[in-house]
Amino acid sequence: MSSASVEIRVIPYTASETLMVARDVTRLQQLEQMRRDFVANVSHELRTPLTVLRGYLEMIGDDPRLEGSPWAKPHLMMTDQVNRMYSLVEQLLALSRLEVRQDVEAPKTVDVPALMTKLEADSQALNAQKQHQILFQAAPAQMLGDSEQMMSAFTNLVANAIHYTPAGGRIEVSWSLLPDGRARFSVKDSGDGIASEHLLRLTERFYRVDKARSRNTGGSGLGLSIVKHVLSRHRSRLDIQSTLGKGSTFSFDIPRELVVSHKSVINE
Ligand code: ADP
C-alpha cells in the first residue's frame, strides 16, 4: 500500500492572520520518481554499448594504416562524439545517484588542499588551448563530506571558468577560512559574465545560456545541477555573482560544523 504525501504551506495573509494551504503531492512525487528511474535506467543501459563502441574506436585508432587514410578524420569525429555521449551518460548517472539521497552517507575527512593540488594539475590539460592565467590558493583546512563528490563540484566550476572565459583570461581559485569558522570555495573568472535573467535558472538540468556555444565547448548543461546537489548534501548552496562583460564568481560556504580542526588552524 502506498502512502499519501501532503505539502503544507503557511502563507502570511493579513498582519495578524496566516493562511495554511494543504496540497496532495502524492501523484507529483510518483511522477518525479518515475522520471528519475527512467533517466537512471536509460543511462545505465546506454553505458554498455557506448563502452563497446569506444573500445572498437580505440582499436581502429591503434592501427598504423589509419594515419593519412581518408578514414582518419571521420574516426576522429566519431571518437569525439562517442566520448561526448559517454560523458553525458556518466553525468546523468552521477545526477541520478545524487538525487536519491539528500545527505552524505558516511562523511569522511576531505583533504581539500590535496584536492586543490590535483585540481591544479588537472586544469593544466583543460587550459592548454586557452592559456589563461590560473591562480590557486588553499588554506590548510579540511572538511567532512564525500571527497569524490566535492572534487566533482570543484572540477565543474573550474572547467566552466576555463570554457566560458575568452583565451588569455584570469581565473582565481581559492579555498579560504572565514573569520566565523566557515570555509569558502570560490572560482572567479574574467569571462563574458552572465545576464541576470539567467542566474536563477543556471543550476537547472540542461539549462544553458547559449546552447550553440556551450555545445561547442562540449557542455551538456548538467554540470551546475550536479554542483547544486553535491552542495545541498554538504549543507551548502551555490552563490553566483556575475557582471556582463566583466566576469563571474561562483562560490559556496561550507558550514562551520563540517570544517575540520578550524580552531587549530586559526590558532596556528
Ligand atoms: P555546461 O555543461 O553547458 O557547461 P553547466 O550546468 O555547467 O553546463 O552550466 C550551465 C550554463 O551556465 C552554461 O551552459 C553556461 O551558459 C553558463 N555558465 C556556467 N559557468 C559559467 C561561467 N563561468 N561563465 C559564464 N557562463 C557560465
Can you tell me the residue ranges where pLDDT is under 50 for at least 5 consecutive residues? Answer: 264-268
* Shape verdict: globular
| Total of helices | 8
Helix content: 40-55%
For the record, give the distance between the C-alpha atoms at the N and C termini, rounded to a whole number: 58 Å
Mean pLDDT: 91
**Helix-strand topology string:** EEHHEHEEHEEHHHEEEH
Bound ions, cofactors and other small molecules, one mention each? adenosine-5'-diphosphate
Put the structure in a nutshell.
With 268 residues, this protein is α+β, with helices and mostly antiparallel strands. The chain contains eight helices and ten strands. The N and C termini lie far apart (58 Å).
Structure description:
- The chain has 268 residues and is an alpha+beta fold.
- The chain is built from 8 helices and 10 strands.
- The longest helix is centred in the N-terminal third of the chain and has 36 residues, at 26-61.
- It starts with 5 loop residues before the first strand and ends with a helix.
- The strands form 3 sheets. Strands 4-6-7-9-8 form a 5-stranded mixed beta sheet, with helices on one face. It has a 3-stranded antiparallel beta sheet with strand order 3-5-10. A two-stranded antiparallel sheet has the order 1-2.
- Helices cover 46% and strands 21% of the residues.
- It binds adenosine-5'-diphosphate (ADP).
